[in-house]
Amino acid sequence: MIKIRIPGKPTGKQRARTLKTGFSYTPEKTINYENLIKLIYRESGGGYMEGPLKAQVKIVFDIPKSTSKKNREKMMAGELFPTKKPDIDNVQKIIFDALNGIAYKDDTQIILVEAWKKYGEQPYVEVTLEEVMIDENNT
Fold it and tell me: If DSSP codes are grouped into helix, strand and coil, which group holds residue 36?
C-alpha cells in the first residue's frame, strides 16, 4: 500500500485544447499538476504495482474566508460538503493519468475506487493505492 498527499488546491484534468490550425495541446495547468503528482510519488518511495488495484482519493477543499461561523462549524463537522468544481472524476483522472507508467503500467489496473470531497483547514488531495487479491469468491 502506498499513500501520497498532494498539497494545495485540488485540480481537475482539463480538456486538451485545439487551435484553428488543428494543433492540439494539453493546458499548462494540467501538465504542472501532473508533474507535481509524479514528483511526490517518486519522493514517497512508492513502488511499481503490477496487479489489480484499489484507489482511495480524499479531496479536501479549504473553507472560503466569507463563510459564516455557523457554516464553518458544519463544514468541519462533515455536515456540509463542497458541491463545487472540480468534479471528483476530473480530479481522479489527473491523478490516475499522472501515475501511469510510474505507480502502475496503466490506470486500467484500477478496479475499485472510493472517492470523496470534504472541507478542511488546508486544501490537499490524499491518494492511497493498494494491490488487491482476487480469488474465485470475489464478486
Answer: helix
pLDDT at 136: 61
Query: What does the pLDDT look like over 109-136, one tens digit per residue?
Result: 999 999 999 999 999 999 999 999 866 6
Between CA 2 and CA 130 the distance in angstroms is 7
Strand order in the sheet with 2-7: 2-7, 124-131, 53-62, 110-120
Residue 18, helix vs strand vs coil = strand
The rounded distance, in Å, linking the Cα atoms of 129 and 127 is: 7
Question: Model pTM greater than 0.85?
Answer: yes
Return phi, psi of residue 31, to 5°: -60, -45
CB contact set of 17 (below 8 Å; sequence gap of 6+): 24, 25, 26, 27
Question: How many whole angstroms separate alpha carbon 86 and alpha carbon 95?
Answer: 13
Q: Give percent of the chain with pLDDT exceeding 70.
A: 96
